[in-house]
Structure formats: C-alpha cells, structure tokens
Amino acid sequence: MKTSFAKRLLSTSANLVKTPLHELHIEYGGKMVPYAGFEMPVLYKGQSHIDSHNWVRNKAGVFDVSHMLQHNFRGKEASDLLQKITPIDLSGLEVNSSSLTVLLNEQGGVIDDCIITRHGPEQFYMVTNAGCREKDVAFIKRELEAFDAQHETFEGTLLALQGPEAAQVLQKFTPENLKKLTFGHTLFSKFSSIVGSDVHIARSGYTGEDGFELSIPSSTPQQTEEARQFFKALIEDFPDTVKPIGLAARDSLRLEAGMCLYGHELSESKTPIEASLTWLIPKTRRDNASFNGASTILAQIKDKSLFSSRRVGLTSKGPSPREGSKVFSSSGEEVGYITSGSPSPTLGGNIAQGYVDKSVKLGSSVDIEIRGKRRPATLTKMPFVPSRFYRGE
Question: Which residues participate in substrate binding (predicted)?
Fold first, then answer.
C-alpha cells in the first residue's frame, strides 16, 4: 500500500508549499511527502495505514486538507457563470446548501470535480482540488470574461473531521445545534474561545462517514495561530476519540466509499456519463442546456452507443490491483483498465475502480493482470462500504 500510494505523491515543484498546520504535523510525528505541490502527512508515528483507516471508521479522524483551493464567486451573473462551467442547477440550491458537481471543458470532459455552496442569491463558495489549481484558475478566468461576476481564490486552514464520533466532538466547540445540520448543508459559527473568526462548517466529507469540513480563516498570524490551537485541541482534548489522519487512509476510505479521485477516475478525456456520474446532470438542465459540452453529454445520456466504457467497481483476492492494470473478460479479451486499487481494511480482500467495456455487466467475472499474471475479479456495485451520511434523526 505504501509503495503504490507513494507513486501518486508527485510534485512538479522543487519548492513544496506548507499548510498552516505543517509544524504540528511534524510535532505529531507525521511522515511528510510531496503531494500536489505541497508537503503533506501520509501517516503519523505510531499508526499504521490500517490503524488510521479503522480509527476513522469507528471514532473520528482529523485531516488537514488546506492544500485544496477555496473560491468565492459573487456578482449579478455569478450563477450564470457557474451554470456555464458546470451542469449544476442553482435554481434548486438553497442558501447554505452544497452540491457536488464538475467543471467541464467544451467537449464535456471533466476539468475538475468540486463542491459548490450557495451563500446568497448571487454569492457562492467553491472548493477544488490542489493538483488542479493552476488549470482551474486559468479556466475560470477565461470563462469569467463573458460574465458580470467576480471571482477570488483564498488560502486558509481547511480541516475534515470525519467519523461516527465527529459530531459529538465538534459540538463541544460550537453553540449551534449540529443535529439540525444535515448532510449537504452549511453554516457559519463562532468556535468557543479558540477561534475569533466565524468558521464555515459544512456537513460533508470524502470518507463515506458522517463528518464536517471546516474552513477557518488564516490570513493573519493571529488567525493562523488560532487555527493551530483548534487543531491541537481536537487531538489533545479528545485523545481517546480524535487522531490526526494522513493521505494514505484518506485514499483507501474514499475508495471504499466509491468516490472518484481526479487524475485517476476523472480527467478531461472522460465525460461525467462515462464516469458513471450521470446523476450530476439534473433533469432540469437537460432541456435547452447551455453548460459546456452539453451536446456531447446529453447525446451520451440518450444514446449509450456513443461511448464504449464506463467506470465500475471491482473486487478481488490475492495481490491488489494497481493503477494501469489491464482487465480481461472471461473469454480473454482485454476490456478495460484499473484507475485505483487497494486492499480494503474494512472488507478484507481488494477493491478497485476502473473503466470497463459496457458489454461486461455488473456481477461478471473478469481477470486483472497483476505482475504479469491474471487474477480473478468481479465487477461490483459501488460504494463498496455503505455511506453513513447524516440526514437527520
């Protein structure tokens, strides 16, 4: 697991960026690696990858995701801009609610996946991936020229507190009743006496567990120190409940949850339809659609013969499938390839995602070529582990 994951931790820059919490990662024994131009913790001293993974499934883990890029959009045509570059339907997105969507190029390929939150009639917050920041910003600036809207990116401390005990821990810091905050919704809150600025709390995450993503202002030395103190308080005040968790477990957790990783399951050469994300194009946006790549995407929805493969899940035993492993049908024909693969700490055995010819149905037996030998596998529905998002009591 360590070797295969390390292959993905590549940086194009010799000068790695550090998040506001970098010194604390070192203090807590983080093993630092290059990732998307940042120096990030992959594991922490005293925790194996499996230990970290299982801790999040059973208690609560806190991830530093400050490497991700945060955006604000505002202005009288902000919604028009966003509905041009993504297939989202903002007419149905209430204030303080969020939705997953994708940035699309003119051919319908995925530039990046992102979360968009409405904060007002023409005020939106978006989070995109660290590894795509340069191309995302360049793309948005080009598209922005045709709209009366403003766009700004900003840095800050972004934390993901994930796991079945995340809510009871976070409740100690906020006067807001978190039982009223359901999956896909957000709020701003003061955080006890530690953080002086309002914290943006989103009930969401990338693990399949209940949890929160917290955007903490860190534009001044005082704000940065407050963010650090909050991170320390989560870990040191709740030692039996919260542990810092690194990139290795984040990857296996999202894979068990059937979630995509940009650059693996998603790319500019794949449309959302090929990526089995047709649900991201709501029916309300399929008539007179004006988003990028609409003609290609809508044609694929209507006529599945226009594309040959789609994203699927696979399970197997023995050596784990890895990115690039070839997939073969029961008759020996090459029918696809693996985009992500890992042993599953929760289920045992291996899980993977990949692109496989549409003619191969779910439940079919296939072979995956691993280290020069073909190993049996089965096409499987995702998520592999049922999600436990909080939707109210």
Answer: 213
